[in-house]
Specification:
Elements lengths: L12 H7 L1 H5 L6 H9 L3 H9 L5 H7 L3 H5 L2 H4 L13
Length: 91
Amino acid sequence: MPRKKYQVKVPTVEDWRQMVKCQAACPVFTDARAYVTAAARGELELGYKIAHDPNPLSTICGRICGAPCEVACRRGDIAPGAKPVSIRPTR
């Protein structure tokens, strides 16, 4: 009788990043949900640090960013009619 072998994969940091679709969609892995949450709470300095840590050029990149995190936002998966969290200002 042959023994069955189980495939076991130890999760890496990349596996955990892929679980957060908006952060995985960002080319520099900025945690948009965290800095938006911090800003909504009025913790602007913390929000700036969260946005600035993975990308020291966040201020400049934010002006030209196509916001792929909005497209990947899973908020729409939670409730019908829910829109993604808006990262960019509407014009």
